[in-house]
Amino acid sequence: MRKLAPVISVAVLLAAPSVQADGLAVTAKAGTLGLGVELSGGASNQFNARLGANYFDYDFSEEYEGIDYDMELELRSVAALLDWHPAGGSFRFTGGMLFNKNELAADAKPDGSYEIGGTEYPAALVGDLTGDVDFDIHAPYVGFGWATDNGGDGGLGMSLDLGVAYQGSPDVVLAASGPISADPGFQADLYQEQQALADDLDEYKYYPVVAVGFNYRF
Question: Is the pLDDT of residue 213 over 60?
Answer without folding.
Answer: yes
